[in-house]
Amino acid sequence: MTEDEPTTEDGVWLDCSNSAVRRAARRLGQLYDDAMGETGLKGTQFSLMTQIVRSEEPTLKRLAKAMVMDLSALGHTLKPLIRDGLVELVPDEQDRRAKRVRLTAAGVAKQRELLALWQQAQNRFDEAFGREQAEELRRTLAFISSSEFTQAFSRKQDQ
């Protein structure tokens, strides 16, 4: 193998950060989905519901930005939660064109139920990965998902 050839382990391409993060995200998604058990919801839906709570009835645009999603993907993800009566869209009081997202009473109850299951999964992750490494990983991933990183990445491309 020459220096220019990508490194692999068991046939997995290791030189691409994007591929590595996506593989890890899919695996963690599977593990956290399993942790949600028989609730009928996935880890991604729990994350979305929790972001709604943390953002205190955000607009669709603000929620999409926080989740690093475009509006159409957010709408697609919200549909089953709205259909099942866990989330609702309401007009913004200051700007009736804008929609705010909030949990219904059933959504608040479901999010609390899921919180306990998520905490168990989070504890297992921290134990398996190491608490300090897990905290550092979350800080690193938060930076990668930040607008500052996007700007730095884009500047390098323009040079």
TrEMBL record:
Q: Which GO terms describe its molecular function?
A: DNA binding; DNA-binding transcription factor activity
Cite the InterPro entries for this sequence.
HTH_MarR-typ (IPR000835), MarR/SlyA-like (IPR039422), Tscrpt_reg_MarR-type_CS (IPR023187), WH-like_DNA-bd_sf (IPR036388), WH_DNA-bd_sf (IPR036390)
Q: Does the keyword ATP-binding apply?
A: no
What PROSITE patterns does UniProt report for this protein, alphabetically? HTH_MARR_1, HTH_MARR_2
Q: Which domain of life is it from?
A: Bacteria
Q: Where is the HTH marR-type domain?
A: 14-146
Q: Which GO terms describe its biological process?
A: response to stress
Which key words are in the record?
DNA-binding, Transcription, Transcription regulation
Q: Which Pfam families match?
A: MarR (PF01047)
Spell out the protein name for this chain.
MarR family transcriptional regulator
Annotated source species: Neorhizobium lilium
